[in-house]
């Protein structure tokens, strides 16, 4: 490789936050560096790793001058990404998590599309990977499949509001001047930083492109280290509810009733069932505080669009209704029934739970049919 100072501005800057991923980071960066697009810069920020991750990246950087390593004390992935962003010089910008890998040619179709359409960014599909070796399972999540069923070019968020559910930063390529002009940053010290930054981007875009191609391999680590696998922590719940509030505030400020409605009805409720379950599990931290944060957050967020009318399965809607009405014992009983061998009986589309004859029960909680999105 020629010295960096001889090289022109790279086409693509790749942001890689690194923290204790020694088992994965070499393969991850190898998948980046073997992409057909050679004109890249990789800005890796080690966030105070203690397992040798930084040394692995340092060795890779010594062998390939497209890779630059920045070290910082442990400050969280948001600050690591923001640190890297300040050092990026490419015309375009993308992100890779160091425990994931890229398909053989992740970026070519994305960059060709952006050059053709002039859009602010492009979004590709992602394949989720669970397990290792012979037991490995690869699949596209249902929501990802819905959003990437067909190619759509030059659209706005009003054309496809469900794209706000695509809260992942790594399956996208942005024009760097778009990102900078709108001051998009990752909220600090939260495990759910992507959703706020991506909501900002979707709402600010003059246009963006949606592709059907898989552009990212998303690994689900088996060591229980990801945020989605720690729902019973009180800090996790608080961060999640704060992120939901910030996202909803952004949507309301944008001024589209349809976009806000889809967010409340189809997107923000998606993962709430995990917190409902966590609230009555033996593993929950500080049960009284956890319950209060969950109950109050549900009552606060789902005012304009009641939770029992959201477009999620009826069992989850009923869980939310019980939480909002401060009925923890009934929530535990419902979850126990759902988990029992027979589950909750269903007859002719009716959900035959124990509270079906209770006065004031919303009719949406008596049927397995999902309410229509706005």
Please provide a written account of the structure.
- By secondary structure, the protein is α/β, with parallel strands linked by helices.
- The chain folds into 2 domains: 6-227, Spore Coat Polysaccharide Biosynthesis Protein SpsA, Chain A (Alpha-Beta Complex), CATH 3.90.550; 230-365, no CATH class.
- Helices cover 38% and strands 17% of the residues.
- The protein is built from 13 helices and 11 strands.
- It has helices at residues 25-33, 53-63, 77-85, 108-117, 142-147, 176-181, 193-204, 234-254, 257-267, 272-279, 287-301, 314-324, 328-339, and strands at 12-18, 40-47, 67-72, 92-95, 121-130, 137-139, 152-155, 172-175, 208-220, 346-347, 350-351.
- Strands 1, 2, 3, 4, 5, 6, 7, 8 and 9 form a 9-stranded mixed sheet that branches. A two-stranded antiparallel sheet has the order 10-11.
- Helix 7 runs parallel beside helix 8 (234-254) and helix 8 packs parallel to helix 11 (287-301).
- The chain is globular, with a radius of gyration of 22 Å.
- The protein starts with 11 loop residues before the first strand and ends in a 23-residue tail after the last strand.
- The model is unreliable at 224-229 (pLDDT under 50).
